[in-house]
Amino acid sequence: MHLLYEEGGDIKVATVQSASGAGDAESWQATSLSGKRIKLKAKEVWLRFEKPEPQALMDEANALSKEIDLQFLWDCAPDEEFGLVDVAQEYFGAQASIPQQTVLAIALQGAPVFFRRKGRGRFQRAPLEQLQAGLAALERKQKELEQQAAWQKELVAGVFPETLKSQANQLLFSPDKNTPAYKALVAACTESGESPARLMIRCGAIDSPLQYHQGMFLKAHFPQGAAHDPSLVVDQAVLDAAISELPLAEVTAFSIDDSGTTEIDDALSVTALEGGGHRIGIHIAAPGLVIAKDDALDKVARTRMSTVYFPGDKITMLPDTVISQFSLDEGAARPALSIYVDIDSAGVVDKETLQLRAEMVPMGSNLRLENLEHLVTEESLADELSDYAYRQELSVLWAAAKLLHAGWCQEQRVVNGLRAEQLGVLDPNALARDFHFQIKEVDGAQRVEITPRQRGSILDTIVAEWMIYCNSASGRLLADHGIPGLFRTQKGWGPLRTRMQTTPGPHEGLGLEYYAWCTSPLRRYSDLVNQWQLIAIAKHGITAKMVAPFPPRDAALMEIAADFEACYSAYGEYQDRLEKYWCLRWVAQDEVPKQVFVRHLKEGVSRVEPVPLHLPVPELATHPRMTRAEVSIADVDLLQLTAGVRVLHIETPEVPESDASPT
Predict the structure, then answer these.
(1) In the chain, what percentage of residues exceed pLDDT 90?
(2) pLDDT score of 334 more than 70
């Protein structure tokens, strides 16, 4: 005997092996068509029959089920609940065969729009209104499937459907996975073997891999777009009122930046003192004088946390109009928060002379590295006949910078077993370089030029050491006044060695007791927050703790510290990603394999010498660090940011004569 039953929504047949019980308590041990041993109870069985054979029955029933007229079956069914045999007699007649009844079982079970399931083998036809609504939904679904199939066909053929063009970015970066458009895209990717991004590039839905990388970043961090609201401005009357109280500094300051810098945050000044010493001024742009905690501009800066830098462009933390009002541009007095400290004739800093002032600082010049760096040497700084701007001031700053560096950094490096650094000396073979990316339009196509610039020049060092001093002095002022801030600390080892915290802590790498970022308030939210706290000290002295925007143990400040760390890290990763993209563009733009030299760093990863590109070169994995090799780079994938590298020649390291074996 064979049994017809339902399992998991499907109609199945099993062959009885043994039976027990009687009536409603009867049960069977049976074998399904798949060979599975099962136990069935009487209430679970729809039909019992001897013939036909199970496999033949199911083959015939599945074929005939497609011919069932569900509308006619619904018309034949009674209003009340019914069983399979009852409706079979209405549809096929009193002599409905086992195959016919099986066909109806499959049809009834698979037509929930027409019939409600009331139990095993029991149904009730759906009310007319629900049936009509269900049929309308089925029709819509069928049309969606047909549309989905049409879109899929176009996508595979390399044509992006016209009706989907407005949804291209949404489909790629923030799709609704239940829409026919997304399902068509996924199906097309499955058929073509491509990723969604690669297929959409092939179809012309997005312009290039660059647009994909940018879109992914904007989706994650700027979902509303990167442009600033044009209404976000500092009213000139408000600015005038804020700076009208500020005294005019008796200095002439100058900044040192590369030509691409438009947010000039910091400047320096040197004033001669009686007895041969000098007063050094570090002047920081002061948007914190006007931007207040929780106002509209603060909310924008708080959301963005930092300016995002990447080759060819940037996304600023503050609107350009606000930056232009506070940037330390030459030719006028600008509002600034200034730190002054005296040095003696040898350049030694007297820490007890530290002063903090909010003031208007006359800006004499914005010096540009490209115009001046090659002129500034130890010899030219000592030569009073050298003819370049601010030679005397730079000479004073350089002498003191060397002492600052030796005092707080070199001792710590030696303690840690590291080699002491030699300041102001350029090593043409060193990999520590900055790179300037310039993207140009040439014959309608983008080309990238990557120009290296060696780090460690005298001007670099002057700016770096005095900004480190400013950050250290700011941390000291906050700590001495018991005011919290965002302190950059470095202690111990591990992934959290360097972090932001709201209480003072040492920066072991620099050998400093306190270190609080404050020199870039136009570009970093941490610096703007610290500036508010420092302005309270400059204006109120020992009572600053009572009026500072963030009191001790402020939960909001702790939250800012955590958010800043996360954002700053993500922005840095994006900058690295786009630098790698443009480096690979540089490799690929001549459309021939590029032969270059690389230096092995560690674990088979090497740095391309002319550009800041890291690539895996497994052949160098067993060689010493800095092993040099000539390679050919080809097969650049700008979407995955990968390339194929073939080693052409590995240079043999030079062996010093003292290490050479005697002949």
Answers:
(1) 46
(2) yes
